[in-house]
Amino acid sequence: MTKNLILKKTLELLTESSYSNVSMKMIAKACDISEPAIYYHFKNKNELFNNLAMSILEQSRELFKSALQLDLSLHDTLVVIADNYLTGLEDFPNFPKAYLALVTDPSFKVVVDNLQNEIDNVQLLLFQLFSREQLRGEIGMDVDVEVVCRMFRGAIIEFMMSSTYLNKTEIPKSETIVQILLQGVLKR
Question: What 3-state class would DSSP assign to 141?
Answer without folding.
Answer: coil
